[in-house]
Write a structure and sequence with these properties.
Order of helices and strands: HHHHHHHH
Strand content: under 5%
Number of strands: 0
Shape: globular
Distance between the termini: 71 Å
Length: about 210
C-alpha cells in the first residue's frame, strides 16, 4: 500500500487513523528490520527518521522518550516505539508502532531458532565473526552519538553534571543497580526543585519586608 508523503506532523494528524497507523507500522518495520544492536540503536534510527528526516518530533521529544522508557518496565525498543506512535498518531499509532517494532524481530528470531543447527558452522566462520565485530563497533558509535545529543539537552548546568557523574561512578565503580540509580536521581531532582522553591519564597519574603 503506497503512502503519500506528509509535510508536517499537524498535517499527518489530520489524515485518517488507519493511514497514520500504517505509516507508523511500516516505519518501524523498516527500522527494526534493518537496524542491528538493540534498543539504543533503534532509538538512534528512530531519531533520524522522525526528527531529522520527517521533522515530526523534536530533540526534546526524544529526550523525554528516553527518560520515560528508561523508568518503566519492558523492552526499550518497544517502549520507545509505543511512545513515538502515541505522540504522533495517538492510541492507534502507539499500537501500530508497537506491532511494527516487534514483528520483524519475532520473525527473524523464529527463523534463526528453526535453522540454528544448520547455520552454526557459517556463523563460526572468520568472515561472519568479522562482520559481527564491525556491527558492534557501528552500534557503539550510534549509541555515543545519541548520548551526546541527549547531553546537550539534558546536562546543561552544574546539577545535571553532578547527577550524571554520580550515576556514572555508581554504575562503573560501585556497581549500583540501574534501578537504584534512577530512584536516587529522581530523589535528587525533587530535592533540587523543592530547594529552589524555598529559596524563591525566601527571597520574595525578604523583598516584601523591605
Amino acid at each position: 500500500m503506497a503512502v503519500e508523503p506528509v509535510s508536517s506532523v499537524e498535517e499527518f494528524r489530520r489524515v485518517s487513523p488507519f493511514r497514520r497507523a500504517w505509516v507508523l507500522f511500516w516505519a518501524y518495520v523498516r527500522i527494526t528490520s534493518l537496524v542491528i544492536g538493540g534498543g539504543y540503536a533503534i532509538i538512534a534510527a528512530a531519531q533520524d527518521e522522525f526528527v531529522r528526516r520527517r521533522k515530526w518530533l523534536t530533540e526534546d521529544d526524544v529526550l523525554e522518550m528516553i527518560t520515560i522508557t528508561q523508568t518503566v518496565p519492558g523492552i526499550l525498543a518497544t517502549n520507545s516505539a509505543i511512545y513515538v506512535g502515541w505522540r504522533i498518531g495517538g492510541y492507534a499509532g502507539a499500537f501500530a508502532a508497537m506491532v511494527g517494532s516487534i514483528l520483524p524481530s519475532l520473525v527473524i528470531i523464529v527463523l534463526i531458532a528453526a535453522g540454528i543447527s544448520s547455520i552454526q558452522s557459517t556463523i563460526d566462520t572468520p568472515a561472519v565473526q568479522g562482520a559481527f565485530k564491525g556491527i558492534i563497533g557501528c552500534i557503539v558509535g550510534m549509541v555515543i552519538v545519541t548520548a551526546l545529543k541527549m547531553r546537550r539537552k539534558a546536562v546543561v548546568n552544574l546539577f545535571g553534571w553532578i547527577v550524571a557523574l554520580g550515576c556514572f561512578l555508581g554504575l562503573t565503580v560501585f556497581k549500583v543497580g540501574p534501578a537504584w540509580l534512577i530512584v536516587c536521581a529522581i530523589a535528587a531532582g525533587l530535592a533540587k526543585v523543592t530547594a529552589d522553591r524555598i529559596i524563591v519564597r525566601c527571597r520574595a519574603k525578604r523583598e516584601e519586608e523591605r
